[in-house]
Amino acid sequence: xxxxxxxxxxxxxxxxxxxxxxxxxxxxxxxxxxxxxxxxxxxxxxxxxxxxxxxx
Length: 56
Description:
This protein is mostly helical.
């Protein structure tokens, strides 16, 4: 038997993740938190840029 490709491995991992409701909720929460964190960083960076432009 040949080794699985990375796509096949990830597909199997996502399938197993969805079968366990608790793990799936944790997975979704991680994705939400990651998105929230990047959004907050972008907003903060925008404010910092505005402050720097005011100083100049």
